[in-house]
């Protein structure tokens, strides 16, 4: 997703006033949600900056998935991987060869 400045945004979406409601909830303007692909249920991290509150989209990763990712990255770092391959046949040939672990 590319970022744009307020000057690049249409006048109708450049600035909007939003009201803080019960439980400190705010409603984001529809035009902004559509422009940036924000959907109901999306998660954001809120942080304080010099200019105000920044909302950054976040994705949660299951702990077991996170461990799998970390193991895979460790394999890449230590060279316990094969590839890249030009095609599927090349990948199958390489996978069939005995490897040192």
Please give a quick description of this structure.
The chain is of the alpha+beta class. The protein is built from 4 helices and 2 strands; from the N terminus they run ααββαα.
Provide a descriptive summary of the structure in words.
With 101 residues, the protein is of the alpha+beta class. It has 2 domains: 11-58, Pemi-like Protein 1, Chain: D; 63-96, no CATH class. The chain is 36% helix and 12% strand. It has a two-stranded antiparallel sheet. A hairpin with a 4-residue loop joins strand 1 (43-48) and strand 2. The model has no long low-confidence stretch (mean pLDDT 85).
What brief labels describe this structure?
single chain; 101 residues; alpha+beta; Pemi-like Protein 1, Chain: D; 2 domains; two-stranded antiparallel ribbon; 2 strands; 36% helix; elongated
Q: What is the 3D form?
A: elongated
The amount of helix comes to 25-40%
CATH architecture term of the largest domain: Ribbon
Strand content bin: 5-15%
The number of domains is 2
Lay out the secondary structure.
Elements lengths: L10 H4 L15 H7 L6 E6 L4 E6 L4 H16 L9 H9 L5
């Amino acid at each position: 997703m590319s970022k744009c400045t307020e000057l690049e945004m249409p006048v109708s979406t450049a600035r909007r006033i939003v009201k803080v409601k019960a439980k400190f909830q705010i409603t984001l303007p529809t035009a902004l949600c559509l422009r940036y692909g924000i959907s109901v249920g999306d998660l954001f991290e809120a942080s304080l900056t010099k200019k105000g509150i920044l909302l950054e989209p976040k994705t949660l990763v299951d702990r077991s998935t996170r461990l799998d990712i970390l193991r895979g990255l460790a394999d890449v770092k230590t060279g316990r991987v094969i590839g890249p391959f030009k095609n599927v046949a090349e990948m199958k040939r390489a996978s069939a060869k005995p490897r040192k672990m």
